Amino acid sequence: MSTKNSLSFEKVRSALFFSLLIILFLAFVYIIRPFFFSLFWAAIIAILLYPMHKKINKYINAPSLSAIISLILVVVLIFLPLTLLLYLIIQQSVILYSSFSTENIVSNVQGISNWLRHTPISPYIIEISSQWTEYAASVAKTISLFLFENIKAITQNSVRFIFMLVVMFYTLFFFFKDGGKIVTRLSYVSPLGNEYEKMLYEKFRNTALSTIKTTIIIGGIQGMLGGLLFWSVGIKSALLWGIVMTAVCVIPALGSFIIWLPAALIMFATGNIIQGIIILIIGAFVISVIDNLLRPILVGKGTEMHPIIVLFSTLGGIFLFGISGFIIGPIVSALFLSILSIYLQYYKNELQQN
């Protein structure tokens, strides 16, 4: 009887312990939830660049110093080029703006409206022309009101972005410095065993690396086509805008259209109707379609996943997690398939043993 009571007490104590463990784990996750994306990208960068950090630490043999050097290299290799690219975008935008005078744009708009008067939409053009002042005042008022209402949100988002970037760098330093210890501690907690843990780690790393490689390749193709398109229609600094399009295409939530669509509108505003139509057609039906065609195939080859799974996991990840979802989605799918294969392998071994 005492033995039964002892077993019952042990079950209750185990249930209470694991219940408390789960509750505290969920509370911990809830606490760090605002910093999820900072932690996630710090982990991604640390995993992808850990071989580089390992070589640096091998020669220096000082974990803190080698972590600082690796962090500096991340800033130099990733963030300084992005800052330089942003400066070039602003500089070229100012040059582009100054190259079109207000009188030139107005005369071109008038020329376009005169050309449209000989088309079936002539009555609408006459009505718009007669009320052009009211339309312009209404648009100016709407834009001013939008900027006034959103300037606070834009400022807050900028401050939040900088803060999250600092958190990511701070976390990345400790991932470089103590990454090996963190992985070892996690392996103690995991019940899967070294073989399966290593498989999951490799799947995580390969999926992240394949997704980022694919994004860079697709961005490069889109940027090259965009640069050639701009050069063919006579846009100045076509090479630079091609590089800008490459950088923009790396962010799936943005896409290449934020470059070629304004270029097409500027062509229309300056009277270059044919060039604007060419940009719209090539941009919509060639440049923008490349991502949807190539991404599932390239990521699928690198992760051994079917292209349809890659497509839906990427789109679903972007819908749920925003910009970071283009890599979170495929990683979650890859880990799920890995866990499923582990289960099937273990289940088969159990059946063979029995």
Describe the structure.
The chain is mainly α. 89% of the residues lie in helices and 0% in strands. The protein is built from twelve helices and no strands. The longest helix is centred in the middle third of the chain and has 58 residues, at 132-189. The model has no long low-confidence stretch (mean pLDDT 75).
Give a nutshell description of this structure.
This protein is mainly α and 354 residues long. The chain has twelve helices and no strands.
Layout of strands and helices, then pairs:
Layout: H1 2-32, H2 36-60, H3 63-99, H4 102-116, H5 122-130, H6 132-189, H7 194-232, H8 238-249, H9 257-269, H10 273-303, H11 307-321, H12 325-353
Sketch the major β-sheet.
none
Tell me, rounded to a whole number, the average pLDDT: 75
pLDDT under 50 segments (min length 5)? none
Number of helices: 12
Assign a percent range to the helix content.
Answer: over 70%
| Percentage of residues in DSSP E strands | under 5%
End-to-end separation in angstroms reads 34 Å
How many extended strands?
0
Secondary-structure element string: HHHHHHHHHHHH
Radius of gyration: 28 Å
Provide the structure class. mainly alpha
Overall shape: it is elongated
